[in-house]
Amino acid sequence: MELTLHQAIEKESHKTYGQVNRMWPDEIPPITKEEAFKAYKLLTRKFGSKKVWSEYYNKWETKKLYIGRRRPRRCWICLSGNCNLLDRGWRRLVHDISHRVYDFRFPQSSRDHNIAQAKIEQEMAQYVIDSGWLEGKLKSKPKVNPNLKYYQEYLDNGLTPAEAERQSRQTVKANHLIKLIRSWERKETTAKTYIKKYRLKLKRINPTMRLDDLII
């Protein structure tokens, strides 16, 4: 039996949704609040644009979808438990943003789930995977305590953790003081140069004048 156009489109939609579900790895990693909000903004900027005709300028212009949110949805965050479910974590985030982009691109559409929305979700999921976001590319690098710059080096030399921390702090402080000394030494050298220069100028003006005689 030959399918109608509507049935063929529905079949293609289900096929695309199935492909999206199979794209994700078997074990989807957790996603933090920071990662979720970064992903939301990046995906919105990447996919949230369309060409619109401007009657005023008489040309096609690019219209962008505004970011809007100031924080991620709670369902986008998954720190523990099963993060493979569609109702939380990475899959929910991509699904929700794909719907927002779809509504932006096709504001007159009366259907939420169709082939066009499925294609957008498929592109987004592929982009997330290819960008390495599931491997933690969106996580901020941990901040290192500057006072513990030499901690690992002293630890490798056989010191105990407490001794390595104390020695590292002392080394960082000593290096800072050395930099200050060298900086002031350079200033002292410059000051001596200018003092000598101005003394010679003063001597030319009045050979008998002494600095103690100056009234400032």
Can you describe what's shown?
There is one protein chain. The protein has 6 helices and 2 strands. With 216 residues, the protein is mainly alpha-helical. The chain has 2 domains: 5-135, no CATH class; 146-213, no CATH class. Helix 1 (5-23) packs parallel to helix 4 (115-130), helix 2 packs parallel to helix 3 (89-105) and helix 3 packs across helix 4 (115-130). The longest helix is centred in the C-terminal third of the chain and has 45 residues, at 161-205. The mean pLDDT is 87.
Main beta-sheet strand count, sense and barrel state? 2 strands, antiparallel
Q: Which stretches of 5+ consecutive residues score pLDDT under 50?
A: none
- Beta content comes to 5-15%
The beta-strand count equals 2
Q: What structural category do the secondary elements indicate?
A: mainly alpha
The overall number of domains is 2
Any key phrases for this structure?
216 residues, two-stranded antiparallel ribbon, single chain
Task: Describe how the helices and strands are arranged.
Blueprint: H1 5-23, H2 33-47, E1 49-54, E2 59-64, H3 89-105, H4 115-130, H5 151-156, H6 161-205
Antiparallel strand pairs: 1-2
Helix pairs in contact: 1-4, 2-3, 3-4
